[in-house]
Amino acid sequence: MPSRFLKLLWIPKISNNFSASETGKAPWLDVDNERIYESLALTRYLGRKFNLAGKDEMESAQIDSIVDTCKDFFDEVQSYLSVKRGRSEGNLEELRPKYDETCKKWYTYLQSRLDKAKSGFITSKISWGDFLLAEGILTMQNFDEEFTGKYPKIVEYKDRVFSHPKIKEYVEKRGDLLY
Ligand SMILES: N[C@@H](CCC(=O)N[C@@H](CS)C(=O)NCC(=O)O)C(=O)O
């Protein structure tokens, strides 16, 4: 399974050994005697711990909000992407108008948040939310050959996040991830 999921193994203490999971799901994060299940809960925890969770309560709320909105977006386009990836049967042409409309709505909204923040990120400085959104944009580029042409400013945003000095080397070294 050459996916981003396995890459989590690079990070000590994040595990995907399903048999050790009390919920039957991965990933989880072990910290001392505590265990955090759920990808967003553990990402949010790491964001707070490493000062990547917004400068105040409002910024933290805006990060949580846009991440939840992004999750809804992917739930809505799932049926199209799943057929596009060859994981399920379906008629791409029939699914395309709804997919296009959902993309337009979500990426127009994301662009408006970026324009409002003026920092190049979703809040006044880079946050865990930007990491998550950038990964989602890479996924869209991987599966929709028209995406970059349609949303060049959104792709610029992803490239800005990935060229941040603290993650640039990691992003370059991890290689292509088709997920
Ligand atoms: N809401 C959970 C979903 C986790 C999830 O579905 N993980 C998959 C792997 S990506 C899993 O554990 N699948 C095993 C199973 O459902 O049996 C999260 O975001 O952490």
Automatic annotation (TrEMBL):
Protein keywords: Transferase
Species per Swiss-Prot/TrEMBL record: Panagrolaimus davidi
Membership in a protein family: Belongs to the GST superfamily. Sigma family.
Statement: the UniProt record of this protein carries the keyword RNA-binding: no
Protein name as annotated: glutathione transferase
Domain GST N-terminal, residue spans: 1-54
One BP annotation, GO: glutathione metabolic process
Domain GST C-terminal: 56-179
GO MF annotations in UniProt: glutathione transferase activity
